[in-house]
Amino acid sequence: MAEEQGQEKTEEPTARKLTQARERGELPRSPDFGGAVGVLVICLLLFFVGTEMIDGFSTMLKNGLTFHHTQLDNVQDLPLLVGARFFDGLWAVKWIFLASIVVALLASTLNGGLNFSGKAAAPKLSKLNPLNGLKRIFGAQAWVGLLRNLLKFGAIAAVLGFVLWTRRAEMIAMSRDSFEMMIASGASLALITFTLVSAVIAAITIIDVPYQRWSYLRRLRMTVQEVRDEMKDIEGRPEVKRQIRRKQRELSRGRMLERVKDADVVIVNPSEFAVALEYDELRNAVPTVLAKGRGELAKSIKERATFAGVPIVSSPPLARAIYFTTEVEDPIPEGLYRAVAAVLAYVFRLSAMTPGLETPAVPKPSLAPEFMFDEFGNPVREQRS
Question: Least crowded by CB within 10 Å, which of 23, 91, 122, 362?
């Protein structure tokens, strides 16, 4: 029973699964959304620029059918004349041309997003398999497409029936008008009908967009085992693990260095080690390590301390002792209380000292044998400077 449940696709697709689907050219697109919205926008645009466009076409036709005898004599100029007439035609429909491009881009962005996939353009022999073709014909997606097409057909028939019935008197009256009036009235009626049909189809496709999104995500669902395998595949790669650890170290190092400015003192072994301590008796009666490091990290700690005005005290044995025995955010061990207290007292005395007086000597606290280490963290028998 557990195995059967493990094979059910109950998990939402991961980001990697969605990326792979996009690479294959699979997007949650409604097939008629872009065309329906584009036609609707063009119909609405014709209401505002239709007269200007007709005038432009009229001018183009008049100019195209009018020839001067000098033009007939200079046959070599005919290509230029044809190009000029072609440009006039494009200029007449410029607004529709630009609107079509803008609407096509916006519709594609809203309808699944822009995407180019070489895999989708490549030929697939699996499409020639008749069994796969039967699955597409009789599958759930095909039935949904059939229902959508029937709905569109019914909506178009209803709109056409409504327009023809309500405008029946007007259409009969057209036959008694002049030819020019009949063309103008017919074009107006056709534009109104076409706009209403486009609006209905656009409304249907807008409803279809969230369904396509839901169907797309449902189709890409994964089993629990597939999710586990993917995580193992991603996290199991040595280069990925190294990158994750490097990012974690960088984030941890960045947070640690940010806290150096809050330290009361930075104790250093000038050649390699640095530890930043904070002593706030209201929060913790014991000094706490805010940051520690060696080599380049110790150099960064000292630079941050200098920039923030945090006192830096050189005490190599104590710096090594704290570095090897205490982690960041932990209080110092009890055996180092006296040594750290001496350094803090020295720092507080410096901050309260009147300018011009003699600077007190840097303390050299003695440490218990168990807190004496060399630069490699090995215990030493006698205190080293």
Answer: 122
Contact 290, 260 (CB under 8 A): yes
| Residues whose CB is less than 8 angstroms from the CB of residue 252 and which lie 6 or more positions away in sequence, other chains included | none
> Is 357 within 8 Å of 373 (Cβ atoms)?
no
First to last CA, the chain: 69
**Angle of helix 33-65 versus helix 78-92 axis, rounded to 10:** 140
Residues 282 and 214 in one domain: no
In this predicted model, what pLDDT tens digit does every residue of 154-164 receive, in sequence order? Answer: 888 888 888 88
Q: Domains in the chain: how many in total?
A: 2
The residues near 256 (Cβ < 8 Å, ≥ 6 apart) are 290, 291, 293, 328
Say if residue 207 is in the same domain as residue 289: no
Note whether 131 and 214 are same-domain residues.
yes
What confidence tier does 73 reach under pLDDT thresholds 50, 70, 90? low
Whole-angstrom distance, CA of residue 139 vs CA of residue 142:
5
Run of H or E including 312: strand 312-314
Rounded to whole angstroms, how far apart are CA atoms 375 and 271? 10
Q: Which residues, 6+ apart, have CB-to-CB distance to 156 below 8 Å?
A: 197, 200, 201
Contact (CB, 8 A) for 70 and 243: no
Q: Give CA–CA dist 21/14, Å, rounded.
A: 11
Closest CA to 104 of 23, 33, 205: 33
Q: 0.70 cut: is pTM over it?
A: no
Instruction: Let me know whether 154 and 66 are in one domain.
Output: yes
Beta 265-269 vs 312-314: how paired, if at all?
parallel
DSSP state of 58: H
Average pLDDT, the chain: 77
Q: Which of 219, 250, 276 is the last residue of a domain?
A: 219
Given a contact cutoff of 8 angstroms between Cβ atoms, the answer to whether 306 and 312 are in contact is: yes
The runs of H, that is alpha helices, within 74-178 are 78-92, 94-110, 118-121, 130-138, 140-166, 168-174
* Full domain range(s) for residue 302: 260-371
Same domain, 215 and 298: no
More confident residue, 151 or 7: 151
